[in-house]
């Protein structure tokens, strides 16, 4: 295009779109600019097709780090499970017996009893878990003598020396879950023995992280002795369901059914 040659209306509108400050009424458009914009057929395409998950995300962007459906959805290597709760929130929600978002020591006790733990262990679990996790889950708040745990902040209580299956926001990380069995289950790719479990706990230890060692040992030991099969195997699907809390619901229902049958 030579200097002094004016744009037609279509090209003038395109120029307005990309260069709102440019004097499009002028006939002095630089040749290089004309070449960039108009030397080839101009086509602008925007794909606005959205699936239901994307529409839900746009409608409620605050859930961006969580899933927007019952199916798992990957976010930064982790996944959120079952609606807008993370896997870790689902894991502990079973112990929130009245579903008010807080877990008190007596609810922890009741939850452990519901899955088959004896009274001494349930008492010890309630004292230790609520005593340690309450203040961690209530940042900026004055300590409460009732020792409640806030489920929405449960990711703040994540300890070291763990398997890494929960990420820093409490989401489930499938690759880390599979790693448990790739690394530590030579006898069976879908289950852990007591010895393999002990070796896994040792390999996960962070030096001098004694609280993390104790917490991880307690969690896995209770799970193993409650859920191992008759051959001493703790199965992959059992462990998987423990991470999202569905195992606890199942265990409680089975115990209720067995009591009714007696």
Automatic annotation (TrEMBL):
Pfam families: Caleosin. It comes from the Eukaryota. SUPFAM superfamilies: EF-hand. One of its GO terms (molecular function) is calcium ion binding. PANTHER family: INACTIVE PEROXYGENASE-LIKE PROTEIN-RELATED (PTHR31495:SF1), PEROXYGENASE 3-RELATED (PTHR31495). Belongs to the caleosin family. This is Probable peroxygenase 4. It comes from Nelumbo nucifera. The lineage of its organism: Eukaryota, Viridiplantae, Streptophyta, Embryophyta, Tracheophyta.
């Amino acid at each position: 295009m030579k200097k002094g040659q004016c744009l037609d209306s279509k090209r003038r509108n395109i120029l307005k779109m990309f260069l709102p400050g440019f004097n499009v009424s002028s006939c002095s458009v630089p040749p290089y600019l004309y070449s960039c914009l108009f030397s080839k057929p101009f086509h602008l395409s925007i794909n606005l097709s959205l699936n239901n998950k994307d529409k839900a995300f746009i409608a409620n962007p605050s859930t961006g780090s969580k899933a927007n459906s019952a199916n798992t959805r990957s976010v930064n290597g982790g996944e959120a499970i079952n609606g807008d709760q993370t896997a870790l929130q689902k894991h502990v929600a079973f112990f929130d017996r009245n579903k008010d978002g807080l877990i008190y020591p007596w609810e922890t006790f009741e939850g452990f009893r519901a899955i088959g733990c004896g009274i001494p262990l349930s008492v010890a679990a309630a004292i230790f878990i609520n005593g340690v996790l309450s203040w961690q889950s209530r940042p900026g708040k004055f300590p409460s003598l009732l020792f409640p745990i806030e489920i929405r902040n449960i990711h703040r209580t994540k300890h070291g020396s763990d398997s890494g299956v929960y990420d820093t926001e409490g989401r489930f990380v499938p690759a880390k879950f599979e790693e448990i069995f790739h690394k530590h289950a030579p006898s069976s790719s879908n289950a852990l023995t007591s010895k393999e479990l002990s070796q896994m706990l040792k390999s996960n230890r962070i030096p001098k992280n004694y609280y993390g060692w104790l917490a991880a040992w307690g969690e896995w030991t209770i799970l193993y002795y409650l859920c191992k099969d008759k051959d001493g195997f703790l199965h992959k699907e059992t462990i998987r369901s423990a991470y999202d809390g569905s195992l606890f619901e199942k265990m409680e229902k089975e115990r209720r059914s067995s009591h009714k049958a007696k």
